[in-house]
Amino acid sequence: MQQRSSAQTVSALRPLQRTTRTEAYLESLQTLERLHRLLLDLIKDEFERLGRTDLTPVQGLLIYNLGTAEVTAGELRSRGMYQGSNVSYNLKKLVELGYVHHERCEMDRRSVRVRLTPAGQEVRDCMAGMFARHAEGLELSGVLDDPPIEAVNLLWRRIERFWSEQIRYIY
């Protein structure tokens, strides 16, 4: 039987490791996708529990991410967890429902700035309460400890930065 050198062994393992790493990356992306859908389901359930049938989960996220700021639709889209093409439509609906106030910018009349109304702030507070309950339950269960959620968030920010750089280099 012929002995392999350590260099041959390492090179023989590389394709397997790459495949395994690719599979792990793809599994992570699928998990992220499922988590986002579950988040929307949790928000939907919370709205149903509160009797808020006029809002969709995506609209709830828009309200939550708007917070106390006054921003443009583009700024809101860049910080949120929803499809960009739906932001304008959902903002229009939120204005009609009285959750968001909008006005044209003085400097650039093409740009519209939006902020929450008192009714929108009430929805945001409900969502903040839901997120706080979830965080408390996760903390008590130990789910956030191994690996620490801070390390997981650091990893996601690194992936986000990598993806952003990939998009910039395409053009």
How does the helix and strand content classify structurally?
mainly alpha
Kindly state the percentage of residues in helix.
55-70%
- Strand arrangement within the widest β-sheet reads 1-3-2
* Cα radius of gyration in angstroms: 22 Å
Please tally the β strands and state the result: 3
* Share in β-strands: 5-15%
Report the total helices: 6
Overall spatial form: globular
Give the low-pLDDT segments: none
Instruction: Give the averaged pLDDT, no decimals.
Output: 85
Let me know the largest β-sheet: 3 strands, antiparallel
Beginning-to-end CA distance, first to last residue: 53 Å
Order of helices and strands: HHEHHEEHH
Task: Walk me through the structure.
This protein is mainly alpha-helical and 171 residues long. Helix content is 70%, strand content 7%. It has six helices and three strands. Strands 1-3-2 form a three-stranded antiparallel beta sheet. A hairpin with a 7-residue loop joins strand 2 and strand 3 (112-116). Helix 1 (6-50) crosses helix 2 (57-66) and helix 2 (57-66) packs across helix 5 (118-141). The radius of gyration is 22 Å and the shape is globular. 12% of the residues are buried. The model has no long low-confidence stretch (mean pLDDT 85).
List keywords for this structure.
171 residues, mainly alpha, three-stranded antiparallel sheet, 3 strands, Tscrpt_reg_MarR-type_CS, WH-like_DNA-bd_sf, DNA-binding, transcription, transcription regulation
Write a short abstract of this structure.
By secondary structure, the protein is mainly alpha-helical.
